[in-house]
């Protein structure tokens, strides 16, 4: 019987082994199942959760959140099997339909256990080479080309013809607004019209490029890209008082035509060359302040990752035109940027933190040396004062309770004089504080006769009054800091109690805070005096006059040194990052700081180079290596991206219409040969931005009329082939600045902290707008204190970015709010009145002469007879100011012709 059972069991075992040992064929058995159930969501068309199952390398690589989806020989560790076999309807795959049958799941399990053999060459699709992309390839161009040549070729291919040249007046207005953001004056127009030489156009361009107004206007374009603001953002949106030096640095860089490769390097490494303000680029984005971050380590780690992410996004988009930030949680969906690439790029910045630091000029370095020399002197002075106090034998004071025994004749007054108080660890010398002053007499040793309720009156040398600190709290019988007296003088002061009648005093009790919560502001050196009916005072406790004077002298020595150091500490600072020892950088699974994977070194994007550094490389070397790689003429992206930006800022649209996305999800260039020629010319010129301006604004393409041709419009309604100059509305800042220039009130003061557009600079109280401006408020709008995520009340409606996100390209919307703001705002009315006053001063009271001058100043031309006929009754019936206000609202004023 036993033999039979063994035989039966052996037969079953052998049979089972025969079934499991049967080789599962991928092509015959597994691939059809994947195609039927998985390719719809994880194939060539879609790759949900980053998982693709129709290509071997991608299937084994896995998706965003689970690591490798197939682990050969380990079915229990293979997420693919876990998901298709799950009993949870919310996680089981595929998400709809009946799912795989048990036999099909078992088949996949067996295939994995057998080693998951997936033969090469059987995939139903070919993996696209994401590095084979036009923007990743080296520059290719004919150095003998020209803008007009490349444009003409495309026009001919599309059956288009270039438009006739614009009028000289229109070109002058166009190039003036384009390069400086301000219209030409009537005098400049007259001089240009009178000069019919071929060099006249070049002279205009050189004049405009030499003007300080040029840098002010073109810096705004760059500040849009890097989302510059003077506040931190988020809910509280507190000011960044030291941010503006970066804005001024950008203005100066454009005005001086700083070579763009140096511009790039300085924004990453300016601290290494006394260009401290330049690295403001690294920290222009919004950031949470320490008090807005949770106190737990998890919140701190997440906030740190968010900070670093903003630096990577800025660097990738501004310089390279790539959305590197998309790879924080998983490999980029479109571009050849892996998640590992993201973190190796992050490692370049792992020593950078948000914050302000002193500007390292030669003068400031000398000031720091002077400060450092005074620090040991201050320490010595403090020690001398401390030693004197210890040697003088004054009892050590206690913040909770101090009792002084007084055996006096009957008195009416008791005065407590404070000569010194302890120091707060962070505030230095501060005002002393008492929460209660008590007096006990011989008639009733338990009765506090100093209480106001007992008829005593308190006076003081001076009091700092607030909700918690008032003189009445000195003798109200209530203990604690919330009911206390505070002196109005740092380190000293006196209080006095006038008793209701003369009486003998046995003891005095006083305290800083009977509740024992606070120990700062504690009197440490004092004198107790009592007085009779004549108010003559007698010292009964504390120091002698000689001791007081000695302490005072030592204290003054200390204060003199403290004041000197405080003044030397007022070195100008810039919100441009704080640099320290780099933190280790790990690839984070799903971008989660709580799921660190392998540690990674600093390295550039693998698809574009092989620059890397050891993990222990110092911060400065890291940023220097990255800057060298980005600013190299061999980098295929840097010159292309900036060349395209300059073209866009002149023509309203780029050769690549997605200026910060040169990746696969961005637009292809309309004129690839021209783009590469511009990039090459940019490098050959020594990276001169002004050279690029000259090429563009002096080209026939730029000098075309903006007049619409119906035939050409049918072929190219969006003017992508530049058969005419595409007119566009001025930016919000240029509109405001031009109104001020024409009214004669524009303040051309440059640099420094920004003027206010709002009555408050930040916080939870909101941002009520300022409606009328004077003085600093009449400066160019780039010098305004820019509040993040809060649009300016009038001109914010004109698509002015709020610095919440990068604005590589401003939209051109048309809304009723724009018209309402520009016609009815207090600003417009003020400038219209100023404009009218200017005209009256310049030409007198004749209405027709006034109308002519108004048109000349606002629109750069004389009015037609019909326009005079329309304007004359407006001036006579309403006012010259009304006409000025109307001209500010015309398209001819608002648009670049």
UniProtKB/TrEMBL annotation:
The keyword Amino-acid biosynthesis does not apply. One of its GO terms (molecular function) is heme binding. InterPro entries: Cyt_c-like_dom, Cyt_c-like_dom_sf, Cyt_c_Planctomycete-type, DUF1549, DUF1553. Residues 25-116 form the Cytochrome c domain. PROSITE patterns: CYTC (PS51007). It comes from the Bacteria. Pfam families: PSCyt1, PSCyt2, PSD1. Keywords: Heme, Iron, Metal-binding. PANTHER family: CYCLOINULO-OLIGOSACCHARIDE FRUCTANOTRANSFERASE-RELATED (PTHR35889), F-BOX DOMAIN-CONTAINING PROTEIN (PTHR35889:SF3). This is Planctomycete cytochrome C.
């Amino acid at each position: 019987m036993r033999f039979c059972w063994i035989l039966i069991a052996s037969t079953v075992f052998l049979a089972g082994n025969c079934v499991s040992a049967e080789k599962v064929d991928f092509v015959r058995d597994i691939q059809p199942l994947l195609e039927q159930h998985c390719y719809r969501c994880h194939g060539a068309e879609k790759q949900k959760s980053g998982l693709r199952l129709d290509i071997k390398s991608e299937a084994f690589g896995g998706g965003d959140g689970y690591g490798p989806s197939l682990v050969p020989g380990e079915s229990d560790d293979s997420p693919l099997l876990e998901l298709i076999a799950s009993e949870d309807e919310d996680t089981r795959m595929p998400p709809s339909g009946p799912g795989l049958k048990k036999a099909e799941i078992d088949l996949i399990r067996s295939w994995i256990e057998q080693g998951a053999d997936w033969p090469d060459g059987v995939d139903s699709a070919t993996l696209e080479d994401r590095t084979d992309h036009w923007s990743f390839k080296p520059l290719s161009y004919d150095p003998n080309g020209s803008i007009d040549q490349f444009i003409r070729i495309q026009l001919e291919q599309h059956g288009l013809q270039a438009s006739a040249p614009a009028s000289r007046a229109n070109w002058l207005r166009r190039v003036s607004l384009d390069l400086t953001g301000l219209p030409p004056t009537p005098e400049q127009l007259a001089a240009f019209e009178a000069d019919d030489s071929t060099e006249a156009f070049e002279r205009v361009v050189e004049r405009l490029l030499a003007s300080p107004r040029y840098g002010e206007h073109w810096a705004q374009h760059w500040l849009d890209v890097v989302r510059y603001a003077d506040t931190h953002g988020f809910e509280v949106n507190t000011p960044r008082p030291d941010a503006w030096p970066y804005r001024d640095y950008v203005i100066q860089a454009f005005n001086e035509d700083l070579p763009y490769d140096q511009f790039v390097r300085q924004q990453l490494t300016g601290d290494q060359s006394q260009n401290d303000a330049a690295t403001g680029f690294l920290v222009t984005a919004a950031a949470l302040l320490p008090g807005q971050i949770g106190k737990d380590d998890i919140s701190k780690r997440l906030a740190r990752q968010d900070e670093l992410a903003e630096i990577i996004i800025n660097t990738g988009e501004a310089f390279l035109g790539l959305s590197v930030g998309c790879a924080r949680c998983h490999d980029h969906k479109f571009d050849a940027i892996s998640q590992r690439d993201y973190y190796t790029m992050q490692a370049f910045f792992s020593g950078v933190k948000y914050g302000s630091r002193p500007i390292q000029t030669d003068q400031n370095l000398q000031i720091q040396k002077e400060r450092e020399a005074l620090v040991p002197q201050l320490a010595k002075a403090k020690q001398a004062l401390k030693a004197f106090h210890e040697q003088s034998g004054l009892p050590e004071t206690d913040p909770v309770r101090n009792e002084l025994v007084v055996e006096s004749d009957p008195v009416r007054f008791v005065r407590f004089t404070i000569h010194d108080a302890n120091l707060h660890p962070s505030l230095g010398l501060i005002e002393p504080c008492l929460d209660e002053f008590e007096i006990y007499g011989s008639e009733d040793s338990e009765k506090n006769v100093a209480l106001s309720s007992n008829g005593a009156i308190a006076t003081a040398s001076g009091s700092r009054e607030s909700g918690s600190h008032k003189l009445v709290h000195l003798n109200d019988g209530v203990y604690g800091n919330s009911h206390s007296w505070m002196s109005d003088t740092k380190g000293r002061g006196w209080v006095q109690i006038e008793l209701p009648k003369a009486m003998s005093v046995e003891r005095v009790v006083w305290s800083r805070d009977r509740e024992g919560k606070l120990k700062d502001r504690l009197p440490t050196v004092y004198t107790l005096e009592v007085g009779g009916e004549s108010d003559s005072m007698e010292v009964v406790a504390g120091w002698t006059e000689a001791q007081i004077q000695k302490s005072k002298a030592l204290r003054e020595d200390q204060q003199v040194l403290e004041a000197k150091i405080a003044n030397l500490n007022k070195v100008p600072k810039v919100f441009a990052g704080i640099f320290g020892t780099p933190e280790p950088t790990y690839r984070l699974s799903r971008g989660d700081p709580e799921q660190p994977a392998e540690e990674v070194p600093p390295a550039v994007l693998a698809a574009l180079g092989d620059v890397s550094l050891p993990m222990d490389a110092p911060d400065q070397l890291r940023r220097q290596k990255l800057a060298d790689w980005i600013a190299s003429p061999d980098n295929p992206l840097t010159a292309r991206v900036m060349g395209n930006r300059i073209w866009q800022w002149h023509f309203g649209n780029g050769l690549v219409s997605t200026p910060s996305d040169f990746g696969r999800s961005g637009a292809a260039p309309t004129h690839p040969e021209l783009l590469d020629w511009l990039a090459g010319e940019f490098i050959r010129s020594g990276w001169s931005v002004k050279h690029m301006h000259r090429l563009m604004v002096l080209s026939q393409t730029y000098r075309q009329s903006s007049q619409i041709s119906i035939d050409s419009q049918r072929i190219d309604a969006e003017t992508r082939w530049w058969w005419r100059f595409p007119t566009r509305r001025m930016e919000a800042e240029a509109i405001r600045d031009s109104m001020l220039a024409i009214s004669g009130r524009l303040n051309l003061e440059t640099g420094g902290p920004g003027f206010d557009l709002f009555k408050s600079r930040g916080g939870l109280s909101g941002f009520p707008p300022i409606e009328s401006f004077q003085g600093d408020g009449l400066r160019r709008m780039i010098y305004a204190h820019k509040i993040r995520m809060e649009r300016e009340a009038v001109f914010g409606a004109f698509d002015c970015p709020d610095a919440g996100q990068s604005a590589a390209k401003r939209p051109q919307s048309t809304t009723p709010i724009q018209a309402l703001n520009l016609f009815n705002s207090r600003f417009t009315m003020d400038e219209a009145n100023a404009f009218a006053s200017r005209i009256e001063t310049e030409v007198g009271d004749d209405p027709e002469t006034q109308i002519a001058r108004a048109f000349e100043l606002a629109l750069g031309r004389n009015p037609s007879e019909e326009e005079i006929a329309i304007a004359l009754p407006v001036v006579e019936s309403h006012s010259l100011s009304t006409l000025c206000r109307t001209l500010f609202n015309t398209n001819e004023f608002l648009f670049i012709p």
